[in-house]
Design brief:
By secondary structure, this protein is mainly beta. It contains four helices and 19 strands. The protein has a 17-stranded mixed β-sheet that branches. The chain has a two-stranded antiparallel ribbon with strand order 9-10. A hairpin with a 5-residue loop joins β16 and β17.
């Protein structure tokens, strides 16, 4: 079995492989990511040396690949620095393009990413769920996000139910979307809870969700950079302007922890079938 690393980016937790000879099968990834019966994670990534840069492959907990996961990218940078594959700054080549990552001086558990601000139009949509119109914005932040303003405290937001219904709503096409419930308490603050596709549940944080929510908030005049986003796990992610562009560049800074190394046994992939009522 391959040696695995466990990392957490603001509560998004990941398993990681360094320079594997081959990508794990989708069934193995899904088994390893299963909580309770196996190791448990929101996703898995593999890192490869690529000249002076690092190439990242990413899979969601269901075993299917995704172009981008920004909390995962911060964790990928943290692991690359730990392995000596970069010194203070490194380029991470993702499925959505290259992203520069750097260590934050004086904060060893934080990584800053430098990336283009979302450029595509923030399209207003109001899909109907159980007779109720849910008015929000569809934003491409490397992966699709439906940003849904929520007027009440987020503690009571129906993320598990309404988030799941919107995630697969026909308005978003066959691939569906991630869903973000957001509040804008003031122009420099954001509160967010995210239902992530591929995980098919709420996660403690979502980096691309924060990026999408900030882009939507700026477009609506509800936010001004810099912005600090409070996530469900209690961690804050910070978005700031890096350079005016073109294209305009933002930084996304936040928690990225290297938690443990693991040596999975064959039992980690021997899972029972789900019960009939699942």
């Amino acid at each position: 079995m391959s040696r695995l690393y466990r990392l957490s980016g603001a509560g998004n937790d990941f398993l990681a492989l360094a320079a594997p000879a081959a990508a794990p099968p989708a069934a193995t990834i899904a088994a390893w990511c299963r909580r309770g019966l196996s190791l448990g994670a929101d996703g898995l990534f593999a890192l490869h040396r690529d000249g002076d840069a690092v190439r990242m492959e990413y899979w969601n907990a269901d075993g299917f690949p995704a172009r981008l996961c920004l909390n995962g990218t911060r964790c990928a940078a943290r692991l690359a620095f730990h392995l000596g594959w970069g010194a203070a700054e490194v380029e991470i080549r993702t499925g959505a393009g290259p992203i520069r990552a750097r260590e934050v001086p004086g904060a060893p558990a934080e990584i800053a990413l430098v990336l283009p601000a979302p450029e595509r139009q923030h399209r207003p949509l109001a899909p109907e769920v159980a007779g109720t119109r849910c008015a929000g914005w569809l934003v491409d932040a490397g992966v699709p996000h439906f940003v849904l303003p929520w007027p009440e405290p987020l503690g009571a937001a129906p993320v598990a139910t309404l988030g799941a219904a919107l995630r697969r709503h026909y308005a978003f096409g066959p691939g569906g979307t991630n869903v973000d419930f957001v509040r804008f308490p003031d122009p420099h603050r954001l509160e967010i809870r995210s239902f992530e596709r591929g995980v098919e549940a709420e996660t403690l944080a979502c980096g691309t969700g924060v990026l999408a929510a900030v882009a939507a908030g700026l477009a609506q005049g509800a936010l001004e950079l810099p912005v600090r986003a409070l996530t469900q796990g209690g961690c804050e992610l910070a978005i700031a302007r890096e350079a005016p562009g073109p294209p305009p560049l933002w930084t996304l800074t936040g928690d990225a922890r290297l938690l443990a190394t693991l040596e999975p046994t064959p039992e980690a992939t021997r899972l029972p079938p789900p019960p009939a009522w699942s």
